[in-house]
From TrEMBL:
Organism whose genome encodes this protein: Sphingobacterium paludis
A molecular-function term among this protein's GO annotations: 2-C-methyl-D-erythritol 4-phosphate cytidylyltransferase activity
Lineage: Bacteria, Pseudomonadati, Bacteroidota, Sphingobacteriia, Sphingobacteriales
Main EC class the enzyme belongs to: transferase
HAMAP family: IspD
Site (Positions MEP for the nucleophilic attack): 159, 213
UniProt xrefs under SUPFAM superfamilies: Nucleotide-diphospho-sugar transferases
Protein name per UniProt: 2-C-methyl-D-erythritol 4-phosphate cytidylyltransferase
Length: 228
């Protein structure tokens, strides 16, 4: 039977939130955003083991928050790196150590800590898709008209062919092990782009427009409304 893991990447800063506190620690419905995110994965029947990647300077603060909010969901914590690529790589190395003799039976999701509204059913869909595909992303089609180019010259494109990428992005462990042996490139904007560089096709799983990423202050207000 396959064993599932999720790496929840939570190393962002609060620079775009007008806050000194990183967005994953801001309160949403009375508790930190990151705690909501972790809880969503515990509700999934795919039952992934949880690894949280945090900036080293915030490890102790996370422990304090856990005590304050009586947060007891089992999860491992790994130190983050200087980039998302390095942070994910650190999380993967933890899994590779734990499952060194069983990688062919391991599925791994990678999820943004600041996406606290992910549906447990969608999480399950992502892991189920690994039985047919080695690399998947959650995405929603654009609801807006789309133009590509610069401010001085652009052209319209068919919005039905435009997908807005979300997380989780889910992969077989063996594919990720190969992909993250590569040197980091500026073109690696997400985990799928790392895998795609090796030539693996990326399968799209239709996502959920409610699966927003907390980036700006208004996002927190929207998330609060969705939780009511």
């Amino acid at each position: 039977m396959r064993k599932n893991y999720v790496i929840i990447v939570a190393g962002g800063s609060g620079s775009r939130m007008n806050s000194d506190l990183p967005k994953q620690f801001l309160l949403l419905a009375g508790k930190p955003v990151l705690m909501h995110t972790i809880e969503r994965f515990t509700r999934a029947t795919s039952n992934p083991k949880i690894i949280v990647v945090l900036n080293e300077s915030l490890l102790n603060y996370w422990k304090i928050l856990g005590k304050e909010h009586h947060f007891e969901i089992p999860h491992a914590v790994v130190k983050g790196g200087n980039s998302r690529f390095q942070s994910v790589k650190n999380g993967l190395e933890k899994i590779f150590q734990l499952e060194a003799d069983n990688l062919e039976q391991v599925g791994i999701a990678i999820h943004d800590g600041a996406r606290p509204l992910i549906s447990p059913n969608l999480i399950d869909d992502c892991f189920d898709a690994l039985y047919e595909h080695q690399a998947t992303v959650v995405a929603v089609q654009s609801t807006n008209s789309v133009r590509i180019g610069s401010v001085s010259e652009s052209e319209s494109i068919d919005r039905d062919s435009v997908w807005m990428i979300q997380t989780p992005q889910t992969f077989s462990a063996q594919v990720l092990k190969e992909a993250f042996l590569q040197s980091e490139l500026a073109s690696f904007t997400d985990d799928a782009s790392v895998v795609e560089k090796l030539g693996y096709p990326i399968h799209i799983i239709p996502g959920d427009h409610k699966n927003i990423k907390i980036t700006f202050e208004d996002d927190l207000k929207i998330a609060q409304l969705y939780l009511q």
